[in-house]
Design brief:
By secondary structure, the chain is an alpha/beta fold. It contains 14 helices and 16 strands.
Length: 380
């Protein structure tokens, strides 16, 4: 197959969408498919076997590292030259509109994948009035696709309630060879605990932005003075968070990737994740593969993976005190958290990217074949 993909975000910005796309492009190359990626300018010219077409875009002042391309960008000529069998819109919003219009103009089947809870983020950024307009825009875009892919059952149900149609689940995988407990090292534990390797080590990984509610972890640090906290990641909230955590036993590492990220997970004891607006949460699967029990809100895509009392603890989404309590319980019960960590690892070992992406390719093929059959029927 020949797959053209349109994404609102890609490298060098690193987030769940970029992570998923990199795995997908690697898999397309491994399975012998051809692909072309349209992304905001600033991305590398190629990734794996995929040419990346960088399109004119502008920086978003409120979110450093994020660039947006206009929906009116000229992509028709390059798309016509590539002659795709299918167009995949990844998190469509602005650039996705261009891909959708071109695909419909040429009769190419369209798959769209939903990745980010933009309406939910509107409230976290203090612009709740934009919540319903965001739903309207997303619903209008997605309902013009032939197939809408959701990362979790929770997201599928939420989109169905909002009037989205033709929904199917495309989950996420984790590389349990890259992320594994065997990478635990005293040097990384010493670094992340700021020289207190015998203390319980709590770890957060992800963007540092308002929707992630990382500030909740200050309450955790105050309630557990004998524990240490490592905050892995970067984002617009980092300066404010560093001020808020001043005096707390906390280490900010900045962004970690690859082997360094895997070693950071493996060095910790508990994964703490206060965000309640996750459509999936790739970092949660990475932490579980690393043998960490999870403390998180009972909300969003996390519900597909975290089993309360089995591989972690869940709490009502807005229960800040309850979140502190479940982290405290894990930090103080070494036997229990080790048992849950083993269960987390066992679960993650069955969530391979290969299986997840082969399922996606099967959906691609069905969509292409279905479109071909309808064309043949109309021509007969």
């Amino acid at each position: 197959m020949r797959i053209a993909l349109f994404t609102e975000t890609f490298l060098p910005k690193w987030d769940g969408i970029a992570n998923t796309l990199c795995h997908l492009l690697d898999h397309l190359a491994a399975r012998g498919h051809e692909s072309l990626l349209f992304a905001p300018r600033g991305a590398p010219e190629r990734y794996a076997a995929t040419e990346v077409v960088g399109l004119p875009s502008i920086d978003v002042p409120l979110y450093p590292g994020l660039r947006l391309a206009a929906p009116a960008v000229a992509v028709g000529r390059r798309l016509r030259e590539f002659q795709p069998d299918l167009v995949h819109l990844v998190g469509p919003f602005l650039l996705g509109t261009a891909g959708l219009w071109q695909a419909r103009l040429r009769g190419i089947p369209v798959a769209a994948s939903y990745h980010t809870d933009l309406p939910g983020y509107a409230a976290k950024y203090g612009v709740s009035l934009l919540r319903e307009p965001a739903w309207l825009i997303l619903r209008t875009l997605h309902n013009q696709a032939d197939l809408n892919l959701c990362p979790s059952r929770w997201t599928r149900d939420e989109l169905a309630e909002q009037g989205f149609r033709r929904l199917a689940i495309w989950g996420r995988g984790v590389d349990s060879r890259q992320f594994r407990p065997g990478l635990r090292s005293e040097s990384w534990r010493w670094r992340l605990s700021d020289g207190h390797p015998d203390a319980p080590l709590l770890l957060y990984a992800g963007r540092l932005a308002p929707e992630k509610r990382v500030e909740w972890l200050r309450d955790v640090a105050d309630a557990l003075p004998g524990a240490r906290l490592a905050i892995v990641g970067d984002g617009p909230s980092r300066p404010e968070l560093e001020r808020r955590f001043a005096g707390a036993p906390t280490v900010f590492t900045g962004t970690l990737r690859g082997r360094d990220l895997a070693r950071a997970y493996a060095a910790a004891d508990v994964f703490v994740f206060p965000s309640a607006n996750e459509t999936l949460g790739n970092v949660v699967l990475e932490a579980m593969a690393s043998g960490l029990p999870v403390a998180a809100p009972a909300s969003g895509g996390l519900l597909d993976h975290v089993r309360d009392g089995e591989n972690g603890f869940l709490v009502e989404p807005e229960d800040r005190d309850g979140f502190v309590a479940i982290v405290k319980k894990l930090a103080e019960d070494e036997v229990g958290r080790r048992r849950m960590g083993r269960a987390a690892r066992a679960y993650a070992e069955n969530q391979s990217w290969e299986r997840v992406l082969d399922d996606l390719l099967a959906r691609y093929e069905a969509l292409v074949e279905g479109t071909g059959a309808r064309r043949a029927l109309r021509a007969s």
